[in-house]
């Protein structure tokens, strides 16, 4: 029967396999909806059945389709009736959950992107996809049944038991295929699996509104590409440092009550990204920023005579650190893609803006603290702005730049200072142009937007100063 099918990669072959995939997907949907209407199981079970069934079907895509455009057409044809049912309040086996989730949107996007970049490495594609499909389903079901130690991620409840199931399952799903399907030595397979499992379990633990459906499979594939060529010793060092960073952030969260559990997981990911992609010296700036934030919060609580509460979760870490993390990835990417002794591929060209973005975020945090302080809020806004700029820049930038550059920090120092000042000005402009009630979270959004705007404005000037003119890609 297989020999009678049109050839792989031909228009007829693509159409025939697309029809088969669509038939399988709609069969899974019909089975879940029928089960939900007749037996009335928890909606989470039927939702995970659709998630699992669609994921298993998607594992065949590297052998079913030759073109991403075929998969895009399948996604549009299969997704149209599903989204129509969502808008009308139908398909309760999938959309009947109480929590707000966009997982049904993120998951097909993740599959398409994973297929587009990973179809040439089908083993890595399947491993990355199964890491989300199988681990997430088991973690949700086991956590719901046996979760006795809950924790909160913004407004969503998770459990340590569910996260542990995700971690263990992800380890097996990475380790066994690498051991049986590649020539990577055994010790490296174990270490790579442990490293990836710990990272994707961290992504899953802090993912909100279904965003883990996007970040976990793409993150797993990225890590497979980055880790598999490395020697055993390098992977062991990476894993040891990540575990140490995680333990330290959890200890800080427990002792200072500054971070929630999800906030500590998010902070550890930021610090580990700095260590892994930039180097050990790149950890200095985010460590100083975290220390400054803890001290500022403690002083604010003392002035207001309040007991410090663990209220800084993953959302806070995201808004404060998102620009810095993007700049870390940009620096690492350009170091790989841009050739030659000059240009963006030379000597960490994003270091200055990276440190400056963290200094700017702390400056804005300091300004918000001064604004709420009974002792200094009566002072003029320019005075508070100058004081907060000196706090943010003075605490983060000098040591953060010196650790990475030594005494050669002139250009980076100027770029970081300009970014810090411009971010504060952008923050004031956003608040004046779009006023929002205090305590609604808009201050954090304005913080992130201000740092993004300042970074985009400073980057061309910074590149001009450092002589980064070679934009040719390999």
Question: How is the secondary structure organized here?
Answer:
Layout: H1 11-39, H2 43-58, H3 61-64, H4 68-88, H5 92-95, H6 103-118, H7 122-146, E1 150-153, E2 156-159, H8 160-181, H9 186-206, H10 212-227, H11 232-256, H12 261-278, H13 284-303, H14 314-337, H15 351-372, H16 381-405, H17 410-433, H18 442-466
Antiparallel strand pairs: 1-2
Helix pairs in contact: 1-2, 1-4, 2-7, 4-6, 6-7, 6-10, 7-8, 7-10, 8-9, 9-10, 9-11, 9-12, 11-12, 12-14, 13-15, 13-16, 14-15, 14-18, 15-16, 15-17, 15-18, 16-17, 17-18
Description:
The protein is an all-alpha fold and 474 residues long. The protein has a domain at 257-474. Helices cover 75% and strands 2% of the residues. It contains 18 helices and 2 strands. The protein has helices spanning 11-39, 43-58, 61-64, 68-88, 92-95, 103-118, 122-146, 160-181, 186-206, 212-227, 232-256, 261-278, 284-303, 314-337, 351-372, 381-405, 410-433, 442-466; strands at 150-153, 156-159. A two-stranded antiparallel ribbon has the order 1-2. A hairpin with a 2-residue loop joins β1 and β2 (156-159). α9 runs parallel beside α11 and α15 runs antiparallel to α18 (442-466). The protein is globular, with a radius of gyration of 24 Å. The mean pLDDT is 85.
